[in-house]
Design goal:
This protein is mainly alpha-helical. The protein has one domain (12-343). The chain has 17 helices and no strands.
């Protein structure tokens, strides 16, 4: 989906983080759509949503860390996965519900589907990524000014003030650009960040992520818990963004190079698509588990294991179908060649 313009081969520690971010996304969905609404007697389920909401911001930061290099080859591979996973799987799980003609037509209109807001927004980021490339070459003060401006619009206007509905929750291109450039800054300043002792970074994560979560759980004041949620949960909330930065900085310190991890992580986008399209099946499985035991610890660990199982199945499917993605990519190479020749004229 992406090509690194910074490091070759891929850094396996960051690829491991990419897998971790997708794990958080799938696990978060289990809490958001099943465990939390089905078990209101367990307030811990809602509190857990805050720290595990980090999956999407980390994923976008990783894209900024490596740098997206636009190509028709990778775009074709991305779109092929979107259509060949989402449409058939959606129809399979929709058919027993006797869908209307409208439902069937909307299934084929994959892009623009609200259920795939992440795909839509990330695709926009992918397309405009070449315009963000000059950011790396700017003078440091100019980079900080741009980042400060984006932070003001995304965090202050979109989260603290809630004054612009289009920026609320951070599910928008502006916030994705902000997160992308944060990832780029983490790479640019990696040498300086490496000077910060790890023994200080871990407590920093506890301070900005764990303490607000625990506070939300034990404080009974609605005014305070509402503010904690607002500053910790949305994708453009300052506490969530800062905690994602800390997680990414910690992973950059891991010394790891593994072809196997790099190979597995190449299917990470397929995990999102397949699990989203087959969500009803996953949710029904989790609801069946709830009939066995409603203990919060049991359900948390079981959903953890189920998430790993879902990821393993999705990765296996993507690897089996890899000849299709290879074929599509090769066909799209001619467009890259044509574009390269004409852009130089």
């Amino acid at each position: 989906m992406e090509k690194s313009t910074i490091t070759k081969p891929r850094k396996s520690n960051i690829e491991l983080l990419r897998l971790f971010s997708m794990f958080l996304i799938v696990w978060y969905h289990m809490f958001l759509f099943v465990l939390e609404p089905d078990n209101p007697e367990h307030p811990i389920f809602k509190a857990i949503l805050m720290p595990i909401h980090a999956g999407v911001p980390i994923f976008v930061m990783i894209s900024g860390y490596f740098g997206i290099r636009f190509s028709f080859k990778s775009l074709a591979s991305l779109l092929a996965r979107v259509y060949l996973y989402v449409i058939p799987l959606t129809l399979i799980f929709l058919w027993p519900k006797h869908p209307s003609t409208k439902d069937i037509i909307e299934t084929f209109l994959v892009l623009g589907n609200n259920n795939l807001w992440f795909v839509n927004t990330y695709l926009c980021l992918y397309i405009i990524a070449p315009l963000l490339k000059p950011f790396d070459t700017l003078a440091p003060k100019h980079r900080w000014v741009i980042l400060a401006g984006l932070a003001f619009m995304s965090i202050y206007v979109g989260d603290v003030k809630l004054s612009d509905p289009s920026l609320v929750n951070g599910k928008n291109l502006l916030n994705f650009i902000f997160l992308y450039l944060i990832g780029s800054m983490i790479r640019i300043y990696s040498d300086k960040l490496s000077l910060i002792p790890t023994k200080l970074i871990i407590p920093a994560y506890v301070l900005v992520a764990i303490i607000p979560t625990v506070s939300y759980l034990i404080i009974g004041n609605d005014f305070i818990t509402t503010r904690i949620w607002m500053l910790s949960f949305p994708y453009n909330s300052p506490i969530l963004i800062f905690s994602c930065m800390i997680i990414m900085i910690l992973f950059t310190r891991i010394t790891l190079q593994s072809d196997k991890i790099n190979w597995i992580s190449s299917s990470v986008f397929a995990i999102y698509l397949i699990h989203a399209a087959s969500w009803d099946c996953i949710a029904d499985t989790l609801k069946w588990i709830e009939t066995i035991n409603t203990d919060s610890v049991f359900l948390s660990f079981t959903s953890f294991a189920l998430t790993l199982g879902v990821m393993a199945v999705c990765i296996s499917i993507d690897k089996v179908l890899s000849p299709i993605w290879t074929y599509v990519s090769k066909k799209a190479q001619s467009l890259d060649k044509w574009y390269s020749e004409n852009s130089n004229n």
